[in-house]
Automatic annotation (TrEMBL):
GO terms for molecular function: electron transfer activity; heme binding; iron ion binding. It comes from Amphritea atlantica. This is Cytochrome c5. Residues 60-139 form the Cytochrome c domain. Keywords: Electron transport, Heme, Iron, Metal-binding, Signal, Transport.
Length: 140
């Protein structure tokens, strides 16, 4: 074992002991200590999220129709790729006539060359619906 590793480990023990000794009285130091421990070796204590799984997109609040459209739908719907109904044109007046329920069903499950969820795997049903509404509202 290298001298450095031995030092690092003893430092870790010192910090960990300090942590145990002071956690009951000095809770405010816990973050700083946890941060120092994490630099030596990744320690994950119960109650921490430990930078593991990313929070689900929905937790950050639902994206608006225009945000979802720009991120996931415009690639095809802005210019009409594969005959996708084009944003801001009468294409959407025709589609709108089908009714939201039908359009949403197509958007969620796919419809001919229209891929399920427009390939947005992280979009909630609500976000897909908002994007459909946004495109229907763009009809001229
Ligand atoms: C890979 C290209 C592509 C992407 C990305 C895409 N679409 Fe489409 N979409 C199409 C095509 C092509 C059609 C026309 C399908 C047809 O009528 O045969 C279509 C049609 C639709 C329709 C009309 C369905 C119907 O029943 O008439 C809706 C609603 C729709 N798309 C919503 C979306 C939404 C919402 C997104 C983004 C989350 C999206 N699309 C992303 C290609 C795409």
């Amino acid at each position: 074992m290298s001298k450095f590793a031995a030092k690092a480990i003893s430092a870790l023990f010192a910090v960990a002991l300090g942590f145990l000794a002071t956690s009951a009285i000095a809770n405010t130091d816990n973050d700083a200590i946890a941060e120092r421990i994490a630099k030596v070796g990744s320690v994950c204590v119960e109650g921490d999220d430990c930078g593991g799984a990313a929070a689900p997109a929905a937790a950050a609040g639902a994206r608006s129709g225009s945000e979802v459209y720009t991120a996931s739908c415009s690639a095809c719907h802005a210019s009409g790729v594969l005959n996708a109904p084009k944003f801001g044109t009468s294409d959407w007046a025709d589609r709108g006539a089908k009714g939201m329920e039908t359009l949403l069903h197509s958007a969620l499950n796919g419809f001919n060359a229209m891929p399920p969820r427009g390939t947005c795997g992280t979009c909630s049903d609500e976000e897909i619906k908002a994007a459909v509404q946004y495109m229907v509202d763009s009809a001229k």
